[in-house]
Design goal:
By secondary structure, the chain is of the alpha/beta class. The chain contains eleven helices and 16 strands. The relative contact order is 0.14.
Amino acid sequence: MITARTSRKALSLTALVCALATALPSSAVASGPRDTPDTGAAHRTASAWLPYWDQENAYQDALRHAGQLHTVSPFWYKAAAADRIEGHPGAGDARIITGLHRAGIDVVPTVMDMDTMKPGELARILTTPALRAAHTAALVRLARSHGYDGIDLDYETITTTATPEYRKVRSAYAAFVTGLCAKLHAARKQCVVTVSPQTAATGRIWDYAVIGRAADRMRIMAYDLHWSGGPPGPLSSTAWYGEILRRATAVVPPGKIEMALPGYGWDWPADGSRSARHVTWKQAEALRRKVGAPYALDPASGTPHFTYRDGDEPRAVWYQDARGASVQLAAVRKYGVHNTSLWALGFEDPGLWKVLARQ
């Protein structure tokens, strides 16, 4: 979200401390037909992000669930300048791209903007026609490389300026998405746009109506209702999903919406005095068993949680699992949304895939 660091932001920053980003390879492989046709498309209602800092584990997870995945978005690229897209470690791995294609899965890598440019630079690019055109061209070049099937645009720090400038940037971003999607479609590539939840108080930078018309799919990051830098609480809830989808489905066809679900959680100091630690589902469950905490599903949100003590410090863990997702997805189905995304491969409760199969 604009007002908070998301889980993916925290994770990508951690990984970036450990490894230097690699530049986008200059040689491009022309996009071509799949080796194997997608024979199970009717059963594929899920997409998922593949984190570069746990690439092999995430890739194997994707292959295990290939029958349900129509798209995998490797979290590989970052916008570094108007005319430059750079790669994270492992970006463009031909073995992974080929393996996913052979499994009938589209490869639509993510380009993110978090902590990649100085404050205000992206807003300047969007509102300057020549720079916006250069940035569009750079993204189209990337989409045409490595046999990719399109691009997932994940720009989360567009602007935090005062309202008059904010409205200008919002309009410019909508125009940018419209132009980018048109050029990607002309190149026979998919245009996927990731957005944060839009409620009465959040997500105003994104013009859902325009994005919904231009993009093939709009992914809503339906997590971090409570985030690492705030007080403990559920990452998502049925009521929150309802609020998000009432707004989204009023202006975007449900078939174009992907509700992105969390496969992780946060481990906070109980008083919320410091930032939370990120935990995958596996880590949260291992910790719960280690400390002997009973399993509890919060009935109001549909989210598992527990408390424990780390020495003298009381702590609170909220996360998501298959049982909780089953409760929350009932709210999603109510609005006719049957496509989901997962943040992220390798984080999730394996039982989640059976729940998604019922979507």
